[in-house]
Each structure stands twice: as structure tokens, then as C-alpha cells.
Specification:
Layout lengths: L2 H15 L9 H7 L4 H4 L5 E2 L5 E2 L8 H13 L5 H8 L3 H13 L1 H6 L2
Antiparallel strand pairs: 1-2
Length: 114
């Protein structure tokens, strides 16, 4: 298991045991901080083309702990995507928690746009 998978596994375990507080981030602040995220993660069928072509995941409804773990892994270099590393490198832990809280709370909003 590499570091990326380990970080995501730990985040999943924390969710399963309730160790991650639901109120760790501020969804309203996260909405404002996530404006650059929606350019890729808010478009149905968005595809990235570097280094390989892949469907960009929608984030609405994703667990906050997963988003925080992924952003930390991009920032540290344990998970690699040039665009995501550049985006995450400018984020504080508070920013990451806020963004995670926003996307976790946004499940209904994103589901209604289909």
C-alpha cells in the first residue's frame, strides 16, 4: 500500500469511527474558497487530458475527510496531478477543512442540477 492509499484508508477509518467532527470546516467559507475547483469539478462530463485522459470526479456529496485527505496528499506530493498540486499548495489546513465541509454539504445542490 503506497502513502496515497494509506492516507485515504486512514480518512475512511476516521469517518467510519466518527473520529472526524462534522463541524471541522465552515461550508459557507468553503464555498467561497472553492471557486477555482468548480471549473473542473462542477462540470458534468469534464475530462482532464494530462497526463492521461480521465473523467474529472464531481465533488458534491463527497465526505469532507476524503477531500481533506486528498488535498493534503496533493500538497505533500504523495498523490500527483500537476494541477491539483498547484491548487492544494496554496491551501491551509483550515482552507481544506472548509472546502471539504462545503462539498460534503453540497450533495443536494449538485444532485438537483442533473
Amino acid at each position: 500500500m503506497n502513502k496515497q492509499h494509506l492516507a485515504l484508508f486512514i480518512a475512511g477509518c476516521a469517518l467510519a469511527t466518527g473520529a472526524v467532527a462534522q463541524s471541522a470546516g465552515d461550508p459557507a467559507a468553503g464555498k467561497a474558497k472553492s471557486y477555482t475547483c468548480t471549473g473542473c469539478h462542477g462540470i458534468d462530463g469534464a475530462r482532464a487530458t494530462f497526463p492521461d485522459v480521465f473523467l474529472v470526479p464531481k465533488l458534491g456529496g463527497q465526505h469532507a475527510a476524503y477531500i481533506v485527505a486528498a488535498l493534503k496528499a496533493y500538497k505533500s506530493g504523495d498523490r500527483f496531478n500537476g494541477t491539483m498540486r498547484a491548487q492544494a499548495s496554496a491551501l491551509s489546513e483550515k482552507d481544506m477543512a472548509d472546502i471539504g465541509a462545503y462539498y460534503e454539504s453540497a450533495a443536494t445542490k449538485f444532485a438537483e442540477k442533473k
